[in-house]
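Possible race condition, two jobs.
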Amino acid sequence: MISDHLLGAEHITWWIFGALQVALFIAFTRNAKGRSSSLLKTVVCIAGFYAAWRTIEYIHLDFIYDFTLKLLLGTIMLLIWKRLHVVESLYYSSIFLLCIEIGKIISVDICMQPLYNVLSTLPELLITGLWIVIVIAVAGLLLWLVSRWTFVPGIEKLSLKQYLLVLMPLIPYIVIRSSTYAYNNDDHALYIRLVALMLILSFWTIIMVVMNAKSLADQLTKIELVEMESILKERNKQYEAEKTALDAAYRQYHDLKHYVSALEAIRDTGQPSEEMTRNLDQLISEFRTSIEPTALSVKTGNIYLDIVLTHKKRECTQKGLRIAMYADGSRLGFMSGFDIASVFGNILDNAIEAAQQVESKDVRDIELSVIYQNDLAFIRCSNPFKGTIDADRDMPKTTKPDSGHGYGLPNITRIIQRYGGECSWHTSDNVFTLTACIPIPVD
């Protein structure tokens, strides 16, 4: 076997091979949607990962133990470095190791073993170097190809049961791959058939794992989008109904103001008694107070934004929250009323729900602003929250089960990105701040 002519495990070339595998692993998993780590932590994680990986290869255990330990090591690396879920880390590590194993099979059994008579005369260093180059090249190409279907939206939302079902084909693969029967017999024809079978099994396993995971992720994403659209349509109907009602109420309010003015004129003419004047003043005051709430209390220059902010301002008042709004909606005409209601409704729903959890009424303040700089619209909302917020993927998740952050944010981001904008968020002193930037189309 050509593998008998490879250098010993202590040679420096295997340290280089280990470094190349670690570099492939880092490059492959960089697209995983986890939390970014500091440069120092990243360097420490990679160094520890490399040392442990090289140790496993140096010990040179049987395949089943070697594969299992590397799978565990890759999972731990992603847990610490990217802060992914355990099963998600296990999934990415499995894909990586399958590609490495396919590279090894192709290198030894497909490319080099048929040329045994020629290669066996070469120095061991050259044979080992050729083996490493082929393995890394094949594994790198496979990882690049499968990454298109591995890092898809929704993959991080799979449950533990779904991930375990997806990874189930690994069990028979590990058992069959650990068999050395193909390499311990002298029947060349049988060896060729077994190698072909092993290669087919390897490709089939990786296709099954990746495609099943992608299919489940697509289904979850579609279900989530359908639910989101349903919620948004219902909310939009509510705002449209409120807009119609407010329009009618505003017309009524406008007419009634003239009526009140007429009453005031009657009071001021002639010489009514002091008691009549006092009663008339009280009636006018109560009448004016009763009709005032029917008007839009927030006017931004955009009727849809007026309705949403008026509604949310009243909700804050009812729930004992203070809200400060500095909103100019005059240049938001490029957004549909549906999207304006969805974005600002979700932003303020999250802010109100989170602020309600804060026990101290002195800090239950919400601030919302809409400003412009050149041809960019900036939306900023800040609110207090209770507990801690952890960045899970690109969206914040609070440790408080009843707090609002996380709910609706994917939908906000999706709408903002549809207009070519971006969303970002940060926390400071238990204040959560969401910022959205949207380019304003130039007519």
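Job #2 (started ~2 s after job #1):
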Amino acid sequence: MVNLLQRTAVDERHVEAEMSVIGSMLIDNEVIGIVMSEVTENDFSSTYKTVFTAIRELFNENVPIDPVIVNHKLGDCYGQFLLELMQVTPTAANIKPYLKILREQSLLRKANDIGAELTDARDAEEARELIDKAGRLFSERPGRKIIDSAELLTLFYDNQFTNAEYLTWGLAKLDENIYAEPGDFIVIGGRPSVGKTALAIEFALHQAKTKKVGFFSLETGPLKFADRMVSHDFRLNLRNIKRHNLSKVELDRVLTNSEAFCKRNIEFIHASGMTAAEIQSIALARKYDIIYVDYLQIVNSGLPKALATEQVRNISLGLHTLSQSNRITVISLAQLKRPQTKEDAERAPVMGDLKESGQIEQDADIIMFLYLKSPGQKNGPRCLKVAKNKEGELGSFTLEFEGQFQTFSMNDTVFEETDNEDEPPEQFHLEEVEEGEKDESRPKRFVSRDEVFRGKKR
């Protein structure tokens, strides 16, 4: 027979919550479905986990639940224990408050267990793994939310009477065609030296006017980051900044406008060697709305002996979980595979070009690529291609890049729509729209390549 009072190291409040939840299921079968949708066996300890697992198995087999049937399932040695649970549970009507307490106390118990392991850690690597484990623990959602069709329709209807607010980028074509929200995982890919970091800084500075932004850099130090920010914001030649060759007038301009610059709600984090869990811990502690990670493939995977594919898979999953679980928009830069042929180097990138791309393609809500419009012209215009967009259009447009000021700007090209991200590069046709051809009375729409060519034939 099991003694109800055997509580050893488990916290008193956690035991009381476990007793109330299991007692409620034994009293009233109607609450079992609620319990199964809100918690798992990992929220229970020792004997209570054993009883919960038995009830779940019976429930899944559509067997009525009562103390006699559960006791028989457990080998006829839990009878008195189950009866005592029913006696100490005042009512099953309070099941939702019981579940809330259980989840909270389960979280605290697990945290205490990790803390105890941390004090006995043999080395820094073991301690790091335990800290990562604690970070993942506190990022988990408190229970699962199940919504029926009536609630879904209500959510839709109510949402239609609110202002549609999506993340903006400071580039009109992107703002019109990407519906990025809190909790999205966004990837910006590109080959080395095309301006990924400069573009990310421009986006981050724009977003920091209204959101709190954290920029996690795994390869750029704070001074280089500051140089780029100042060059962009004050339109100062980056070469003169690097050579400490700014004029007195230029330095005075920085000082005069420093107050506006410092109002940007952006923080730089030198993240070299950080894991996704460590990035998450800082993001939660600093309460960021948006974080940038520069760049994905050099985040510490926590799996030093694993293959590169498994490491990138672990990193991508970690960043995706961070965004989804905490409603933080995660924007990660990513490197592309080295082109194997001249044709590879000259075509527009596709999602298969992402290094170890399988998991990244699966996890990302939006994937963009930045590349040279004319290969070989490093100072020439760039193309920004939207290759994956779960709730918007696919396509590309041209950006002018002023490297000396670290800035990008739109030209007059249309956002060229495409249905297939893997179409060959000639499918992307960017046509300038003449002033006389604009008709402001017509609704804004995308111009497909087929329409462009049909128009020319006419």
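The first helix runs from residue 12 to 27.
Logs attached separately.
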